[in-house]
Each structure stands twice: as structure tokens, then as C-alpha cells.
Design a protein that fits this description.
heterodimer; A: 1118 residues; alpha+beta; seven-stranded mixed beta sheet; five-stranded mixed beta sheet; 33 helices; 22% strand; B: 159 residues; Ubiquitin-like (UB roll); DNA polymerase, domain 1; 2 domains; 6 helices; 14% strand
Chain lengths: 1118, 159
Amino acid sequence: MRVIGQRVRHVDWRAVTSGAASYADDVAHPGALVGGVLRSPHPHARIVSISTRRARAVPGVHAVLTAADVPDRTYLDYRAPDQDRRMLAADVVRHIGEPVALVAAETAGALAAALAALDVRYAPLPAPTTVEAALSPRAAVLHPDRGETNVASTVTRVLGIDPDQAPPGGHRVKRRYRSSYQSHVTMEPHTVVAHWRADEQRLHVWAPSQNPRLIQRDLAQLFGLEVPAVHLHELTVGGDFGGRTQISSTEALVCALSIATGRPVKLRQSRAEEFAFTKYRVPWDVTLEAACDVDGRVTTLRADFDIDNGAYNQAAPGEMAYGATALASSYRWRGYRADGRCVYTAKTPSSSFRGAGGYAVTWALECAVDELAERAGWDPIDFRLRNAVADPGEVSLTGWQVRSSALAECLETVRREIDWDRRRQQGGPGTGRGVGVACTIHVTALARDYMLRSSGALDIDADGRVHLRFGCGDAGTGQKTILCQAVAESLGIDPGRVSIEATDTDRTPPDAGAGASRGSFVSVSAARTLAADARARLTEVAAAKLHVPPGDVRWDGGDASAGPDTISLGDLAVLAAGDEPAFTVESTWVGDSHDPAPDGHEDIAPTYSFAAHAVEVEVDEATGVVRVLRVVAAHDSGTVLNPLSARGQVEGGVVMGMGAVLSESLVFEGGRVVNPSYVDYDVPRAAESPDITTCFLGDGDPVGPFGAKGLGEIPLLAIGPAVTNAISHAIGVRLDAAPHTPDQVLAAIRERDGRSLRTGSVGRSPKRWWIHAMRWLYPRGLHATLRRWGPRLAPPVPPTVIRELAVPDSEQDALARLAAGARPLGGGTDLLARETQGLPVPELLVDLTAVGGLAQVREEDGALRIGGAVTLADLAGHPAADAVLRATAGSIATPQIRNAATVAGNLCQAKRCWFFRNGFDCYKRGGATRPCYAVLGDHRFHHAVDDGHRCQAVTPSDLATPLLALDATVAVRSARGDRVLAVADLYDGPGETVLAPDELVTAIEVPATARERTTVARRLALWQGAFAVASVAVSARAPESGVVADLRVVLGGVAPTPRRIPVIEQALEGRRYDARAVERACVAWERGTHPLAGNHWKVFATSGLVRAALDELYGGAR
Amino acid sequence: MRSVLDVNGEQHELDLRGAERLLDVLRDRLGLTGAKSACRQGECGACTVLVDQRPVLACVTPAAVVRGAVTTVEGVAEAAEPLRQAFADEGGFQCGFCTPGQIMRALALLAESSAEEIADGGTVRAALAGNVCRCTGYAGIVRALQRCAPNQDQEATDV
């Protein structure tokens, strides 16, 4: 093959890398209105009334729509019996963020004013926001019309012998696994433009999706239009991963606004909405009981699971049915039973996500199999080789028939490439290292009629250029490129002569888009068929022209010849086109399909792919931080159509799957997402991405086009359990709840060592007793009372906008403006973030970076003076600055932030509590009548473990910690005069300073005496550049002597303000440095803390940081 | 406030409102849609542009405080040709939404780093921490950057 198997560039590379590619928000639509959605603030409530009168009266508003104004139809979504979702809530809202009303307006300002003027009255109802609560016999039923409980659907599978009746003996493991709430986080926030053209009676839509036809079909149905009356336009798609493969809520809402106004309307979703109100991966809570006989052969598998559906049915019921089958399809089980429930909860619905149905079950199963192997005394790779469904011709208990498989080769390859035997032996508890493995089978498409059907069209012009038209979409996977390759290969031409469009529904024939890893099989089959049809037609034309029988026509480089005569492809196309403008062929490929088997026993896909991954991890036993060092990914996806895009699918899938087990999960509080931002939801970044070795094995599949099988999803399936198994090897404890954040890992390590997971004490301080009493009262009604009555006692603080930004011409000018009411602006990186977050911001600002003298670093008599407007990047690179300050400044946030953010801005930035930042109307946002959401909510990372007060947040400045250890002072100036503060005295609350509104920080000064000491800093962050969970700085005189002298131990992120820790300092001061004394001092400090219920781990992790920092400081002395 | 903004070598006289963001000025007023709006709070890097050759986040930069020369991806299409090809040849992008930001970040990094620093995967990865990519797993981006050191291997076939 000449083109298949070649590294061909992504067809859109020029447009993408030049910034010219047009995404939904980049398309200009003259006269477009801006659309907006009013969303439910309640997880479950009856809508008492909606008044749109005031909103309609806002100047510039063109439409205000409620459920009464839009068609009363349910979305088609995934499966007919499940349909329960409407465009706008009419009587009842069932999750926070459910669309209630819509506005289209001339400007963003008018839109905001109209949304604020909509008057909706709700009667809140009890809201079961977790699966556990929803299954309680007393739970409010979310859909009383669909049943008496919150169980949306169930599944049962019984295949082979009954696991409960299995003969005794052998080995058995049982464990409950809980997968994470992973968000798709497409880089492009969902933006849709719609334009209803009354003159054409057509709806024009620009909507990013990997499956434009499904969007078209659902929109037509919702608005009672014929399918061709909905026209989806060509568009570059900024990622999908299954999140946009079916209609979300945005598309129909913006169409409704355009139909109501007759104008083009654009609706942009903010990043916070993207996280909080779009689909997320279906979370599984699955208990597996797996058994094998004494010879290490698997026998039976028992599975019980509940999956979190959210408030409406989208993909979850179908995913459950699929997953229930997939569970028993990868090993040679002799008996299997599964019972599952898909449960409604008052949250945004979960839905399809790359690897759908297979992701969570494979993770749980591969962890269980690993544990079973260990129990039976087998090496994890050997156990898999012995038991996996892997032989061509083999049929799984569930009916899946293997057509080609290189799984054994994959397992042997990862064993060799990761140096398994040696690392397995060298790693383990106490070494900080571990290796793990996992393998899997995965479907290539599903054997359903809608999925095994693809049409394409091909045009050839007079120059012999081939243009393809497919309706499959391409969200970046390289789908378009491999279709071009398939046609180029089949026609024997250079791929540079083939172009493609893949979305426009007027111009392309139908295709079921990306899903179930079908693209490289189904759409490529269609492309090959299309090229063959074109070749057959052109052969006839050539034969007629050359006066030979068709069988005598030879093809070379796209040209036809017979004897000495040759006709070029372009000339043939002209001949074949006749009176038409171009030669065009359209054809449809249809595979063998069948209806779902009721018992789950069926050959569910045309063929199956295989993969094995091995992973090496490093675990810091002192903090619980896990780092993936290396991944070896071996895949059998048949023939690799394009090694460039195939490798990208594996590498991207590995990192995305790693995220799902290590760091990514939406956190909910009362049904509201707590972490809807890139800072708080930890998508893996480059710094966390491991070294990945990708290997493709296998000779090609007998049924796949060119021998190809699916690839897009399977990398995610194998990586997750391989990571979990590697951590288990490293720490000697099996983890079973994803993601494995440091709190979980550290708790597992301490439990392993028989050490307590709790610490702290109330002590004798009356203030602590008061705080303790408050915390006790929170779950006993105080939280609910404040939450319910607080807003009635005092209205929420409205967001403000920055009206004026002054650039001063001198320091005097700046001080005068501050005195007149303006507030200082440093880099602006936090201030503008706060504006986006809807937090109050000053209306008048004065740009301090314009004041020359404030941006200098200089040494004077041994002291270091850092101007307030010095950027973190400049401090990090300044030769005069102390190493610890350079290192700390260089570790804060990201390079781009460091180029703008200033030292004074870093010290004075507001708290990073995720409730405060992300829209919770808390004590610090709404005032004294509001609760602190951290007390009962998730406070594992960024809240105080000591001396928290009404607000549990901490001061986020990482720079303050070493500055405090260096006895630094802050020079402050206002029109009223100068003053100098110790850094220790700068704060009077979490991220709150004692500075008066008109004061500015002119400089930070580190005294010469402190600079003679040695200072070391350490931080614990969830990703490199994240705000520190805890930071430590230790500073002492002449540590090389081995005797502790003039010691400072400073902690940041553990108490509302950074502080020195006298209990540790005094225990060590004046003595010879001794690790045991440090350990004792740290434990003494731990016992004196006052953590919240869920952040005791942070006390221990901070202790770990202190020990590591002191070890570094005194390392040279030993 | 009236202000003059130098973008890709062109001077633009603008009447800026309050803390109007550089990103909005570029996209909405100047029609330069290469820099993307993906978070509007300085957390993802999709809006990365250069100000006096240093990468900054246009979404949290008030346009009024920009005193240097702004360079966007549209301004480097030719200068960055080898880097763009390297992104294409090494799988440095898939959906492409983060790519303009990645390219601008990468250009600054290549300009300010030694060959040894670029050869070190760990250093490059750390330097890219401000640019989130959800598609590639970063490996292709790192390779693309490293390929832009001299004497690298041949390109893939161009479609």
C-alpha cells in the first residue's frame, strides 16, 4: 500500500496552525443577536410563576422565551424508551442549571440586564443529589410520571454458570469500585449560532459536533421541520470526546431564539457553564466479585452496580446495558451475573464520553483481575495471558467473536519495554516506585444498522483533483485525513490531490459520525467502496474511449491506459461527467447488523481491537502525590491507516485516561458543581504528562478496510487501571475510588502502616471552643438555616464592572488617584479572573505597572529590595534575588501568568476557596448572614487545618511563605504617608490584608541578616503551577554545622494567614539536627492543629513537607 | 480612554472602555480571531499572545496597560512556518483550538532557550504548563518543539 500506513499530515494543518481555522465563535454573522439562558438555581423545585414583563421591557431585547413559547417535545437523545428531556423546564426543575428561560438581545449588556430582570418564583423540593440519597425509600421522586422510584432503568445479565452456585475452592476477591465524574473539557467552549431564514423556511446552524447528522435530526424533530430544512454548516470543531456527539441543550435553545426573532443568534457558553452544565462521564459504583480456580483460571464474575444518571436520560441507560455485557467479554469466564440500576439524581445528566460504556467497567475489572492474580500467586501479565479472550476465532461468554488479535504480543511487548520483571521486583512499598499493567478488548463500531452505514460522495474535476464529501464530521481525530488516504490509495493517486469536507448537511450524504470507534472501520469502508465505484465507472468510460474491453484497462497513478494510449484522470472525469459540471459518484456502504439481544449474548461488533498498557509511577509516601513516569502502550488496531494520527490518538487517550484516575472529577455540593474551572478541576497539563512509548502490533484484520480496526477509545480503557495497579504495587494497598488524589493515597499509606488518619485537638483556647461549637452546629441546622434565610435577610451582592482604568504619569499621580477612590492594579491576572467569576471588583483602577520606580529589584547594604510592580518572571530571573525567592517565584502559576503578575499582586491576591470563587453565595461573598460552604462541603485541599474561623479559606500567596521566613517587610505608601509592615503583619484574614484602600505596596525588603541564613521552600500542589495546598519555608543560620540555629519554620496554606510554627522551631533550636527530633516536633504540631472533618490528611502531608524541607536544609550536615 | 495598540506591526488607535481585555480587542475589534477565548480567567493559555516577545494571556490583560508590541498567531504565519510544519508532522495538534496559543508559547520558548534546554523533555513540559491541550497528551507538541532544533529528520507527506 502506498498511501495507507503513511504519515500523512492532518488535512487542515495550514488553517489550524495559522489561526485561520474557523470555529463557531470565529464565524462573523452580521446583525447577530446574543443569546443567553436563565438557569435553575435549585436542584429540584416547582416553578410557581415566571414573569417576563420586566425582561421584555429592557431596551435592546428581541425575545424572551419560556417553556410556553417553544415546542412541547422531548429530545430524541439516545434510545426511544428513555426520552424524558425537554428544551425548557415548564413546571419542575430537576437540576441546578436546567434551562428555564431564554433571551436574545442586541448587546451583552442588554442580555445581562434582561436575564437579571426575569422574575421566576420557585418552590424548592427535596433534592436527591447523590445516588445513595436517590435510592433512599424516603427520597423525593424526580420523575413520578416514569415510575415510583428514582431508578430510571435496570439491567440483568446471567450467562454460563451462576456465580453464586459456583463450586468452592480456588481464589476469590470482592471489592467496590467507584469511578470519577470526568468532564470532557473540550478546549472550545460550546458556542452555537443559528439563523432561521423565514424566506427559505430553513434553519441554518453552526454547531460544533463530531456527529452533525444527529444534531440535524434532533433539531428537525424538535421544531417540527423536515430534516433537510435544517442546514448544518461546515465548521472546525474544537474537540468533542463524545460530549457533543448528541445534541446538548445549547443547539435547540439558540434555534428557538432565532426562530422567534428571525435574526442570527449566537449563544456562547462560559467555561464555568461548560464544566457545570454539560455532560460528564457516566459514573459507576460497581461491586465486583471475581474468582479463579487453583490453577489460576478465571471461573466466575459477579457484578452489582448503580450508575449516576443525573436528572434526565441521555446515554447512561444504554451505556449501562453495554457495560453490563462488556464486563464479561474480556476474560474466559465460565459464569457471570450482573444486576445494575441506572439512578436519577438531581444533577446535570451524565452521558457519552470517549470509551463510553467500557471505560469504568474496564477500570474496575482490570483492578479486580490484578488483585485476583495476586491472590492466586500469579504474575499480573502471566495471569492475563492465561485468561484473556485473545485467540482469533475465540468467542467470549457474552458472544463476542475475535476475528484478529495480537493481545498476547501486546502483553509481551509491554513486559519487555517497561522492563517489567526488574521493576516489579525493585518497586513496592517503601521504594516509592511501582509498575502496573492492564489490558482490554474493545468494540470497533457496534453491529447496529444506524452505525454500520455510511455514505460518501466524490467529485473529480478536469484537473484530476478529487474532492470528497462525507457527513461524518471530524473533531480533530484525523478522520478526514484517513478518508482522503483511503480514496487516494484506492485510486492510486497522491493524497495531495484529494480534498474533503465533512459537515455541511446540504453538501454531504449522511454518516453516523464518530462514535464507538467506528470511523476507521465504517467511514473508511465507505470511502474505499466509493473509490471502487468511481474506478468502475471510469473504467467503463476509459474502455469506451480506448476501444478495448473494460478488462484491458490498466490503471497507474490515477491514469487509465490500454496499450500505448493513456487518458488522465481529469480527462476521464470530463468525459464521464458529460453535461454535468463535474464527475460525481455517491455510494453507501452497509455492514451486517442485528438488533440488540435481550440477554446480552451477541457478537456486538464487526470486529474488536486489543490493547495492553504498562505504567511506572512514583509515589511520594510523605505527601501522597503520584507521578506517572512512563507509559508503554501496545495496541492491536489492525492496520494502522496513518501512524501520525494513530500515535496521537494513543498519546492523547493515555493522558485523558490518566486524568480520570489521578486528578479529574467534578465535585458537587448540594447538586452544584464546586470546581468549574481549569484551576480547580485538574486536567493533566504538559508538566504532568508522562513519557509514552506507543507500539502498534498485529497483521491486519480480515474484515476491516485495509485491515483496520477502531482506535479512538481503547487507549483510555487500558491506561486507567494500569495506573491504579501501579500505585497498588508501589504502596501495597489496592485503591478503588477514582481519582487517586494525594489525600486518598496518603490515607491508604497511613492505614497500611497502622497510623491514625485523624489528628488535632480542640485544646484550651476559648476561640477554638467557639469554632468547634459552630462546626458542630453546621450539620445540625445552622448551615441550612443560613442558606435558606441568609438571602432574605440581606440580598446577594451584585457583580460590579470595572468602569475606568487610569494609567498614571507619576507615582504622585497614582497616589492621588488612589486617594480619590481608585484601587491599585498590578498584572491584573487575578482581578480580571475575579470579574469573570462574578466577584465584586473595583470600579476605578490605577495601573501601577506604569510607575517606573516600582518595578526594580536592587541590593542595598546586603538587603534586597523588590519593587511591588516587579513581575514574578523578573524576580525568578533576577541574579540579585535569593535563590529561594527565585525558585518560588518561578514555581508560581504558569509562565504566562508570571510574565504579568506582580510581587505585590501575589501577596495581596484574594483567597482561592473554590466555593467563594465559583459562585457560591458564601460568608465572604454574600456577608455575615451566609454559611461557609467549606465546613460541610469538600475542603480537602484549599482550606485551613488550623485556626479557621467563620471562613475556612487560606491566604493563597506562595511568595508570602519564604518572605516570612526571611523576616521580610512590606513598604506601604499612600498620599497620607509611608509605613513599613512585617510580612507577618500584612494579613488579617485569608487573602485579606490590613492595607487601607488607598495604600499601595511599593516594595518588599529582605534584611541582610536574614539573607545570611540558608532558606529552603517546598510546596504541595495538585498540578505544577496550581495554588499550593500547603507551602513550607525553613530558614536557619549555618545549617552545615549540623546544629540548629536561628530556625524559622513557616507554613502557608494551612491557616488563614501564613505563620511561623514555634512548636517546631523551639523543639529543634540549639540542638544537633536529628530526624527523630524533627518527627517528634512535627507530630507535636500535628496534635495542636484543628482540621476540618475532611482535611486531616493535609496536616500529615504538611508535616511531610516540613520534614523534606528540613532534610534538604540540613542534608549537607549529615 | 484613547490608546494606540501595536499589533503585528500595525498601529491601531482605539477608544478603550475600562479594563477592556486585550483578547476582546483583538477578536472583536480587530478581527484577529486566532487567539481563542476558552476560560476568560487566565487558566488555559488558549489566548496566549506575545507582548514584546513575552507570552501573556490576552484574556486577563487589560488592553489599556499594554505598552509593548503585540504579536498574534496571524502575525507569525511565515516566521513560524518551520514550527507549524513540525506541529503537523509530529502530531502537535488534533482539534487545533489550543494551537494558536501553543504556537505563540512555543515561539517564545524557542527564542529564549538553549538547544540543551529544548532537548530536555522535562524542561519543555514544565515550560508548557500554561497551555492546556485536551487532545494530544502533549507528546506531539513537545516533539514539534524539539524538532525545531537544527538537523532534524524529514517531514511527513503533505496532503
